[in-house]
Automatic annotation (TrEMBL):
<dbReference type="InterPro" id="IPR025270">
    <property type="entry name" value="DUF4044"/>
</dbReference>
<feature type="transmembrane region" description="Helical">
    <location>
        <begin position="12"/>
        <end position="36"/>
    </location>
</feature>
<keyword id="KW-0472">Membrane</keyword>
<protein>
    <submittedName>
        <fullName>DUF4044 domain-containing protein</fullName>
    </submittedName>
</protein>
<dbReference type="Pfam" id="PF13253">
    <property type="entry name" value="DUF4044"/>
</dbReference>
<keyword id="KW-0812">Transmembrane</keyword>
<keyword id="KW-1133">Transmembrane helix</keyword>
Length: 40
């Protein structure tokens, strides 16, 4: 696999995608904990 230089747009897109994935997982975990009564 040869490394291709990523454009700035691609880098920003990847970062945004990761942020969205982490935010989604975080909210899923938070709502699961809330359902279990961890946060009252």
């Amino acid at each position: 696999m040869q490394k291709k230089q990523k454009s700035t747009f691609q880098k920003i897109t990847m970062v945004l995608v990761w942020i969205m994935i982490v935010a989604t997982l975080g909210s899923l975990v938070a709502s699961a904990l809330q359902a279990l009564g961890m946060f009252g």
